[in-house]
Predict the 3D structure of the following.
Amino acid sequence: MTIRANAFPEATQWSEGERCAMKKFWPLLVRALPPDVIFIADPEGSIMGLGSAVGPQFVGNGTSEMRLVGALREILAGGHLGYEEIQGVLKDVLTLKLEDGKSNGVSESLLSAFLIGQRMNRETDRELKAYCLAFDDELGPAPVADVRSLTHYGEPYDGNTRYFRSTLFVAAVRSCYGESSLLHGVEWMPPK
């Protein structure tokens, strides 16, 4: 909701009902929510009005979380990060559990807000490259499927309002016959 309030076009920002609900319940939520969630909801202390100075003063715990909070401030304002900044944050947070079973010390809510916020802002090419390379470094190369044949289906997503999506069912039927299919979305397709 923070990104919608800060960076989305006016038609998709908060509705009047959402504003009224937050005005009514925010003072109660501030007393019940942990500081990291309050920060995510109102990082600069300017969206929700009166009630808390937690957001502007929140820095996180530990170096990894402090770096994540700094990046989140930019993301929640609707901004984009540089390649090196994303690489640095992801190197700090990608190993969610260390070898000894302990957590890396990064709040799951902050990490979730980081990943979701980047997606909502529609990451740039540089940001996407940083994600891909960071995950490649962490997980290794993607495995290659050993299949006899593969049928590739790509169709644009339009909210399922224009026509029936048959490819999902075609893929299911093909799998019953041992045939592999790859389904994915595309931004647009030329007419047939």
Q: What stands out?
A: The chain is about 50% helix and 5% strand. The two ends are 40 Å apart (CA to CA). The beta strands are 150-156, 180-186. Residues 16-32 form the longest helix (17 residues).
